[in-house]
């Protein structure tokens, strides 16, 4: 508990210090609870998510960083490895391939990489996984793009 | 008189089978029953005297044995490859404790082995500074408060401890623990664990290593008996899978179910599945259902009313109490709604349990029940015999040798008898699973099977009774009895006779009952021909006995039957091998 606080505080300070280090990631810590974080990540370019801004929610266990944080998408996203309803993410480093040397920042980077390189063979979103597996890249892209527009782009009022 | 005849028959069979046996059996096949040979192993199992017989095709390993073997393997690899023991252990674990594979892979391409296993020779990261940033807590620490695996990625002790402890408490996966630096695959060995883990975790870790030696190794398995800590190392390729653990549990090394010779693993799996599928059904059905008197399908009563209508297409209407047609109900039975025929019938003995059973045997469920009941009964009977055997060895033999004023070494025949009973109950039990799966239309085989099974079973009952009841009188008696030597002769004779019956049974089942109608040795011919004459069971026994012994007496004078114990001795011996009576 104590060491997880200390470590999270280091990450917090690092984030404050290098706010502009990665323009695609904006990590913020809940001011009242250091175990609750959220992030805004930019959809990677040359993907159907380009131009979208996606919000992630982090729930951090007391044994962090020995155990991984729980991360999910708050913004709706059409992606084979993200549960369409719950936003749950299927990513090995958030499960058995976790290492305490990872940080919340590097987790965000890994999620951005996953958005650019979906793994249709371990789908959480079957519709999306099936489109990709059957080779219908156009179908997948147009669906993903549509949801990016609907859910991840600021409404121009 | 009857029993003497039977014993005689069995000895005849044995004598003829002697040649058969020596010619045909391989290393493994005579261990089951053939083990309990008179006098042969009187000396080699003297300490514990339990069922433990070490065979050539397997070795029972205690925890100490396992550790010793493991140490030896590690020493071999460490010496031959000139590497640390810790690294040798890592390599062996990776190659599932196959020493030859480690050698082969290492000498083929050491560099590639080091890469896959994560055993680096030169640290990829090296540092000469005094203080370093730990990649987990992000604090700076003096170098002597930090350590690294073979890769040279330094983390502070406190973070390492958390990392190692989390992994060890997560299960045996900790044996594959790697450096926390994400892309680095350097393996964490036991030396490092010992440096970083708590005593409790070290203990857990070393147990995982011990377990891995048995569980990852394809030639070894733990004994499946609850609470048993022995493992069995098996010589791969052996035909006979029956192994006997030092805890006295006999099991099949292949499927780890209890030993099931002469039935094969597939049939055992089928039978066990069947039992588990039926077990819930069974009790419920026996309590709540009866066979329809017309079509024999089990009908459950789910209403209070006694008027039952069978399911379509049968639709037979009958009375639940008397199983008579509902149309017969009326004045005679006390009216449609009150049946007293059940009571009357019971009084008159018309619907005795046996008849009901016999009728129900046509029904498939009842057929299963028939075999299951006998399978289960022999199972519990074996359990009881095993307890009796232990009690005999721990308490009774001592007492007996006192009352009879004979040394305990002279009581070996009693242990032999009980061992035989335990083994026979096991075999008999599995023959009921065999019987269930033997197709109904294979009449010749079924008759032959039931004949052999019946002979074996009645032999066993005689032996069991003798070892249980008659022996008790000698234990209870106040002083030495003149009859004790006669008793010895009788019990030893019954043991030998029963063993022969069971050997015949096992051999016949293992060869798929193919002796039926096959030419070859004489008893086989006479057996099958007399069976084909299709008499009742008792008549059949006589015929076979007669034919067999005639063929022995008339055609083949290589044996003589002892007048006292009926043992079939070879012609060359002038004194009976069992009771030492002169010819
Ligand atoms: Zn640290
Ligand atoms: Zn490393
Ligand atoms: Zn055991
Ligand atoms: Zn088996
Ligand atoms: Zn019916
Ligand atoms: Zn009635
Ligand atoms: Zn004799």
TrEMBL record, chain A:
Q: Which PANTHER family match?
A: UBIQUITIN-CONJUGATING ENZYME E2
Query: Could you provide one GO biological process annotation from this protein's UniProt record?
Result: peroxisome organization
**SMART domains in alphabetical order:** UBCc
UniProt entry keywords in alphabetical sequence:
ATP-binding, Nucleotide-binding, Peroxisome biogenesis, Transferase, Ubl conjugation pathway
Instruction: Please tell me whether the keyword Transferase is annotated for this protein.
Output: yes
Q: Where is the UBC core domain?
A: 3-153
One Pfam family hit:
UQ_con
Q: Where is the active site?
A: 90 (glycyl thioester intermediate)
Q: Would you say which domain of life the source belongs to?
A: Eukaryota
State what protein this is by name. E2 ubiquitin-conjugating enzyme
Gene Ontology CC entries for this record: nucleus
Which organism's genome codes for this protein? Zostera marina (Eelgrass)
Q: List the EC numbers from the record.
A: 2.3.2.23
Family listed: Belongs to the ubiquitin-conjugating enzyme family.
Tell me, what is one Gene Ontology molecular-function annotation carried by this entry? ubiquitin conjugating enzyme activity
From TrEMBL, chain B:
Sequence similarity? Belongs to the RBR family. Ariadne subfamily.
Q: Which residues form a coiled coil?
A: 344-371
Q: What is its EC number?
A: 2.3.2.31
All residue ranges annotated as the RING-type domain in the record: 130-343, 134-178
Is the keyword Hydrolase assigned to this protein? no
- Which cofactor names does the annotation list? Zn(2+)
> Which Pfam family, any one, appears in the UniProt record?
IBR_1
Protein name in the entry: RBR-type E3 ubiquitin transferase
Q: Does the keyword Manganese apply?
A: no
């Amino acid at each position: 508990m104590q060491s997880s606080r200390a470590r999270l505080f280091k990450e917090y300070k690092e984030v404050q210090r290098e706010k502009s280090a990665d323009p695609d990631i904006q990590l913020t810590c809940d001011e009242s609870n250091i175990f609750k974080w959220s992030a805004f990540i930019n959809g990677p370019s040359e993907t159907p998510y380009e131009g979208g801004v996606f919000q992630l929610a982090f729930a951090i266990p007391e044994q962090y960083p020995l155990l991984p944080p729980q991360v999910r998408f708050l913004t709706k996203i059409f992606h084979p490895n993200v549960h369409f309803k719950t936003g749950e993410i299927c990513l090995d480093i958030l499960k058995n391939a976790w290492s305490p040397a990872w940080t919340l920042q590097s987790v965000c980077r890994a999620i951005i990489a996953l958005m650019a390189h979906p793994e249709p063979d371990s789908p959480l979103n079957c519709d999306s996984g099936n489109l990709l597996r059957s080779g219908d890249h156009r179908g997948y892209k147009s669906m993903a793009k549509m949801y990016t527009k609907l859910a991840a782009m600021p409404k121009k009022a | 008189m009857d029993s003497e005849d039977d014993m005689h028959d069995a000895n005849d069979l044995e004598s003829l089978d002697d040649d058969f046996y020596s010619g045909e059996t391989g290393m493994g096949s005579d261990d089951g029953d053939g083990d309990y040979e008179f006098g042969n192993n009187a000396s080699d199992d003297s300490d514990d005297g339990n069922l433990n017989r070490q065979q050539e095709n397997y070795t029972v390993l205690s925890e100490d044995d396992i550790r010793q073997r493991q140490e030896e393997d590690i020493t071999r690899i460490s010496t031959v490859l000139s590497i640390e023991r810790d690294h040798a252990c890592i390599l062996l674990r990776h190659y599932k404790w196959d020493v030859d594979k480690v050698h082969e892979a290492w000498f083929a391409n050491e560099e590639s082995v080091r890469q896959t296993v994560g055993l680096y020779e030169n640290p990829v990261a090296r540092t000469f500074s005094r203080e370093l940033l730990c990649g987990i807590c992000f604090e700076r620490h003096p170098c002597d408060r930090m350590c690294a695996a073979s890769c040279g990625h330094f983390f502070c002790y406190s973070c390492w401890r958390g990392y190692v402890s989390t992994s060890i408490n997560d299960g045996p996966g900790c044996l594959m623990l790697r450096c926390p630096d994400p892309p680095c695959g350097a393996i964490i060995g036991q030396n490092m664990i010992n440096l970083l883990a708590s005593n409790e975790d070290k203990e857990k870790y070393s147990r995982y290593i011990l377990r891995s030696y048995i569980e990852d190794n394809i030639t070894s398995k733990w004994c499946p008996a609850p609470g048993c800590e022995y493992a069995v190392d098996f010589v791969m390729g052996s035909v006979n899978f029956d192994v006997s653990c030092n805890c006295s549990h006999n099991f099949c090394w292949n499927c780890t179910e209890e030993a099931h010779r002469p039935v094969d693993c597939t049939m055992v799996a089928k039978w066990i599945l069947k039992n588990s599928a039926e077990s819930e059904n069974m009790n419920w059905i026996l309590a709540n259902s009866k066979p329809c008197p017309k079509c024999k399908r089990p009908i459950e009563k789910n209403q209070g009313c006694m008027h039952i209508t069978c399911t379509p297409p049968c639709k037979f209407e009958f009375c639940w109490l008397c199983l008579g047609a509902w149309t017969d109900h009326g004045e005679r039975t006390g009216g449609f709604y009150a049946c007293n025929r059940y009571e009357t019938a019971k009084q008159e003995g018309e619907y005795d349990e046996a008849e009901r059973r016999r009728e129900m045997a046509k029904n498939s469920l009842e057929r299963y029940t028939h075999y299951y009941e006998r399978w289960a009964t022999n199972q519990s009977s074996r359990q009881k015999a095993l307890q009796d055997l232990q009690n005999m060895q721990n308490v009774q033999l001592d007492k007996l040798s006192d009352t009879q004023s004979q040394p305990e070494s002279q009581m070996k025949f009693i242990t032999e008898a009980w061992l035989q009973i335990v083994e026979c109950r096991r075999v008999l039990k599995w023959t009921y699973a065999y019987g269930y799966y033997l197709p109904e239309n294979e009449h010749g085989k079924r008759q032959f099977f039931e004949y052999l099974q019946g002979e074996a079973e009645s032999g066993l009952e005689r032996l069991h009774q003798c070892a249980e009841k008659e022996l008790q009188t000698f234990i209870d008696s106040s002083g030495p009895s003149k009859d004790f030597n006669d008793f010895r002769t009788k019990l030893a004779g019954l043991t030998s006779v029963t063993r022969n019956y069971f050997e015949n049974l096992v051999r016949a089942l293992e060869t798929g009952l193919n002796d039926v109608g096959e030419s070859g040795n004489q008893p086989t011919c006479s057996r099958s021909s007399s069976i084909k004459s299709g008499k009742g069971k008792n008549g059949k026994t006589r015929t076979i006995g007669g034919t067999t012994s005639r063929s022995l007496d008339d055609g083949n004078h290589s044996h003589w039957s002892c007048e006292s114990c009926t043992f079939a001795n070879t012609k060359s011996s002038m004194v009976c091998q069992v009771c030492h009576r002169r010819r």
